[in-house]
Specification:
Helix content: 25-40%
Number of domains: 3
Radius of gyration: 22 Å
Distance between the termini: 43 Å
Number of helices: 9
Strand order of the largest sheet: 7-6-5-8-9-10-11
CATH topology of the largest domain: Rossmann fold
CATH class of the largest domain: Alpha Beta
Order of helices and strands: EEEEHEEEHEEHEEEEHEHEHEHEHEHEE
């Protein structure tokens, strides 16, 4: 069985010339492979009983049958091996930071709607398909998320809501929940085919305990991410309170926040640990509502954020209007279009937190040509991190240190933070 690699779908076994992904495999398992199917012969010492009966069907937690401490050790080893290929010695890569609660930790939930014979079901898609796997008791979801999901589900049933694409002519694509354990507030979002949702249902949903607002995204057809479009507030407040570090943020439903509140806290601590002691000007690129910049503001004198999402920009500007800028300025637009303007200001640190696909060639080229002394790269997409890292290394930077947070327990994915310094 091959070593675990960041970002792959599961553990891989090499059988002759064939590579077979075992979604519920554990490094150290002994298996027999016949015609592309694997049979477990002897379990790994790290194998445990997974609490979820859907492990081999659901598209989520492929490592749930692996002891959590062993997961962290495997991920640390995988990160060190990958970055060693870029010239970073293992002692410069910190051990992966784990969570105190590896189950019940996800504070953002998005479930597709499906079902047969008029019965509504909510769940995730089977790995590699669009077949719905009902998962309303998912053990990695936060108890508050599951409680709100159950309450909302009862109301959907009471109003005879059906999934989109059903023979009964239903309209619901998906249901989304975000909760903040510290503020006690929750956000409820619907995705459907029509802007017309029964008013009585909306009023019942917004009266559920902790719900600050109910929001709707409209798409005539299902998409891979049903909340991608603009979300309209149907009832309640347009923003919900989410807490990160010592900061309380009021965020619109379309503004990014990490899927795990505890993981977000650990990530902020990791970013702070890799920042220089004092920063004159921090450039926070792909900044969202400025959560990382605001969480690090004791370390910088001035900061500038760049973000393309109008909802996130509006959230941050609204906050600065209320509290004062404190040396923070906000640029709206794509990083590709604003990077030159930012670099002309002469930042001494660029903080990059791009989407999974990475930064792209225009941003990387600008950093290599006129970049700041320090670049801090936060990555959820490991392939993009490796690609962008190679560009920086070829453009006058050297890899100095790395760390990672286990934002997604029981999966091979990591939230990595890598520090680059300009070579003199």
């Amino acid at each position: 069985m091959l070593p675990l690699e960041p970002g792959q779908e599961g553990v891989v076994v090499q059988a002759g010339g064939e590579r077979l992904v075992l979604p519920a495999g554990v490094p150290g398992d002994r298996v027999r492979v016949v015609r592309g199917a694997a049979t477990l012969l002897a379990p790994s010492p790290a194998r445990v009983t997974a609490p979820c009966p859907l492990l081999e069907r659901c598209g989520g937690c492929s490592l749930q049958a692996m002891d959590y401490r062993a997961q962290l050790a495997q991920k640390t080893d995988a990160l060190r091996r990958a970055l060693a290929g870029l010239g970073l010695t293992p002692n410069k890569v910190q051990e992966v930071v784990g969570l105190e609660r590896p189950f019940g930790q996800r504070t953002k939930l998005l479930m597709a709607a499906g079902g047969r014979a008029g019965v509504l079901r909510l769940g995730f898609y089977r790995r590699g398909t669009t077949e719905l796997v009902p998962a309303e008791g998912c053990p990695v979801q936060h108890p508050r998320s599951l409680a709100l999901l159950a309450s909302a589900r009862q109301l959907l049933d009471a109003y005879h809501v059906k999934p989109s694409g059903s023979r009964e002519g239903g309209w619901l694509h998906a249901l989304g929940v975000r909760v903040d354990p510290r503020s006690g507030e929750s956000e409820l979002a619907l995705s459907g085919t029509s802007p017309r949702v029964p008013a009585d249902l909306v009023q019942q949903l917004v009266r559920l305990p902790s719900v600050s607002g109910v929001h709707l995204a409209v798409s005539r057809t299902r998409t891979s991410y049903p909340m991608e479009g603009p979300l309209r507030t149907l009832a309640g407040r347009p923003r919900t309170a989410f807490t990160l570090g010592d900061e309380r943020h009021l965020l619109s439903p379309g503004t990014f926040f990490q899927t795990c509140a505890e993981g977000a806290e650990r990530l902020l601590e990791t970013v702070r640990g890799l920042l220089p002691g004092r920063v004159d000007l921090l450039a926070d690129l792909y900044a969202g509502a400025g959560l990382l910049a605001l969480g690090c503001r004791g370390r910088w004198r001035r900061a500038v954020t760049v973000e393309a999402n109008p909802a996130a920009v509006a959230d941050l500007r609204r906050r600065l209007e209320r509290e004062g800028s404190g040396g923070l300025s906000v640029l709206a637009g794509r990083v590709e279009d604003r990077i030159g303007e930012v670099l002309r200001r002469g930042p001494d640190v660029a903080l990059l937190d791009p989407p999974r696909r990475g930064c792209g060639p225009r941003v990387m080229a600008a950093l290599c040509a006129h970049g700041p002394p320090v670049v801090l790269y936060v990555a959820c997409g490991f392939e993009a991190l490796l690609s962008d890292s190679r560009t920086l290394l070829g453009g006058g930077y050297r890899l100095n240190a790395a760390a990672a947070v286990d934002m997604f327990p029981h999966t091979p994915h990591l939230e990595s933070v890598v520090r680059f310094e300009r070579e003199s």
